[in-house]
Amino acid sequence: MKGFELYEPTTVKQAVDTLTKLGPKAKVLAGGSDLVAGVMKDWVEGAGMPLPSALVDITTIPQLRGIKVDKTGATIGANTTLTEVVESKALNEQFSLVVQAAHSVASPLIRNFATLGGNLNQRPRCWFLRGKEFNCYKKGGDFCFSVGGDNRYHAVIGGELCYIVHPSDTATALLALNAQAKIAGPAGERLVPFDNYFIGPREDVLRENVLKPNELIVEVFIPTPAPGTKQTWMKLKNRQVYDFALVSVAAAFTVENDTWKDGRIVLGGVSPVPYRATVIENQIKGKNIKSGIKQAAAVIRTVARPMSMNAYKVDIAQNMVERTILQALG
Amino acid sequence: MIVNSDGSVQCVSGCTEIGPGQRTEMAMITAEALGVPLSKVSITTYVDTDNTTDTGGTNGSRQTNTGGRGIYEATIDAKKQILEYAAQKFVDDAKRRNQELRVTPDQLDIRNGDVFMKSNPSTKLTMEAVVSAAGLPILGRAIYKQDNDWERTAWAAHAVEVEVDTGTGSVQIMKYAAAHDVGRALNPFALEQQIEGGVVMALGAVFNEQLLTDASTGLPLNANMLDYRPPSILDVPEEIDIVLIEKPKAYGVFGAHGIGEPPMGPPAPAVAAAVYNAVGVWMESMPLTREKLLAELRKVR
Lengths: 330, 301
Known about the structure:
heterodimer; A: alpha+beta; B: alpha+beta; 3-stranded antiparallel β-sheet; 7 helices; 33% helix
């Protein structure tokens, strides 16, 4: 592994100042399960993705860790581990979607040190991106190897230039819960709803979110869902421990007289960003869920653009949306 | 192998341990063939053919019947010497008591570390006493050459119950049973583990494992444990029943038959047949991935 300088700030301001001073050669470090044990260990680098020569460890900032729940919603510090999310009684009661999503990540060992912020901001798993011999768009190269190559796990919706799928399970759940991120930077703090937090390859192929090099996510706020909101998570993987979503579905919605009142359906594993399936939501809105969801789920086909080897993911996504909604109804 | 004057036994074996307990088995074969408790037997702590025997590799389901056969025959050689010394000691001890006694080795045997008269088992000598009387440790030697017409047919039957999810292409193993003719189970616990491990390893190959390469560059795509996906503990069926069938083989040590590779063969056809029985499609290549299964299902449903 390439050597690096380690900084251990104790306040958010110190962290931001250090990042600003060091510039893009520095990266924020939390659990390190992707940045250190993945990207840096495997020498995943390119002109647009240089390996960091400095790491700013934010786990030394105590205020970034912890879960607070009040009547407006839940606030989760970015350094809170996924195990802490899974074991939080307060989150289990009202925000079970994010708990289930966190619980489906990797393995207990990883969840014990991987943080919520890190899970949201980890780099994608595309095997061309991770293979150091493939100088692809996302690394600053001028080619996407998935277009003519083995793309069985790549994007079926919203791919363009680059066909990664967003790797984060918690991101999928948080978008379905209409959560927002609090971001700290040199100009202070700003709130960004997850609706606007993730960016696709068309906007900037070199990154997956709005964070600038001298910014960091400090906490996540999830507004308290409306009373009676149904929440369900479903994740399909090829191996039951330590695997990313082939397709995942996060649903949070309210029901009135068996009809869909309001809510969100978000898919993971299908698109470069967590994909909010508004096409399906619009189709089911105001309709009887049990009789209408099959037809509504099929609308996914109108937005899907599968590649040579991944059309099966569209079938699976359609099927899983239908199942997730019916499972939520109980 | 060596029998020391304190009655302890050392196996000198170049047998390589690859997990399923081959070296424990070498010690067990020695203890059984000599007639001493396993606790009296140790095995060389290292494998180095400068100082240990050359048993050939632990592969081809053969170590029990190559390294194991060698140590068995060396033990029989040592036992023969010990019985001769013991017969002499019985005679000498009697002479010291002014008694006359005629004892030949074939009238003696060894059990639980004692050399005893077959006609009167309470008349016995400890191993320590016999080897001490011999004056030096006993060295048992043998050379076993694998026969040229080496042919060993493995007999097995596997049964599997699956649940196929036609929406996602997931195949869940509900129940698995593996019956193997093992000749003779020398270490039944380790043997069951080895068969279970073989089934799990095979299921990884059946459903997931495949080294993928990029067609345009020839570079590997999944040369890591994350993307190659060997099975995790949660992918192992909850119920794997192992049935040991013991029909001793003339060629085997105590009748044992090799079991390393045999459990790897049947799982693929067993699973494919179960999937056919469940949903009516024959999957003819491994791995049986969900994308292949869904494609086949589209043709018939």
